[in-house]
Amino acid sequence: MGYVVRATWTATEASVDAVRDALARLGPLSRQEPGCRLWLAHQEPDRPLVFELFEVYDDEAAYRAHGESEHFRRIAVPTLPLLASRERAFSETLDL
Questions:
Q1: Which of 34, 37, 43, 61 shows its CA 20 to 30 Å from the CA of 69?
Q2: How many whole angstroms separate alpha carbon 63 and alpha carbon 5?
Q3: Cβ atoms 5, 72 nearer than 8 A
Q4: For 83, how many CA atoms within 13 A lie in the half-sphere containing its CB?
Q5: How far is CA 45 from CA 24, 50, 74, in A?
Q6: DSSP code at position 69
Q7: Could you write out the DSSP letters of every residue in 2-55?
Q8: Residue 72 has what DSSP assignment?
């Protein structure tokens, strides 16, 4: 099974460009992590302040390692205070 994270980052008008840039830099580095199976971020066309992230890791430990990675601390952590809101939901894949 995989550990799934669905996150919604909502930017402010003033931070939308910085948030988009941070996600563009974070994606390639996150995809290279050993436990990362999938990492996608997208911006909603009708709600340009809203960014959706869809991530799949081998397990919860791999997700936790992602949050402790150098690139997450360098790129995402300083970006989080720029957000109007951040929501996350966690689940597991059904490997039938």
A1: 43
A2: 8
A3: no
A4: 19
A5: 17, 9, 28
A6: S
A7: -EEEEEEEE--TTTHHHHHHHHHHHHHHHHTSTTEEEEEEEE-SSSTTEEEEEE
A8: I
- The values of phi and psi at residue 54, to 5°, are -130, 120
Q: pLDDT for 54-81, tens place per residue?
A: 999 999 999 999 999 999 999 999 999 9
- Tracing tokens 């989080």 back to the chain, one arrives at 80
CATH architecture under which domain 3-92 falls: 2-Layer Sandwich (3.30)
Per-residue tokens: 26:
């974070």
Successive 10-residue mean pLDDT values, the chain, 96 residues: 96 98 98 97 96 97 97 97 98 86
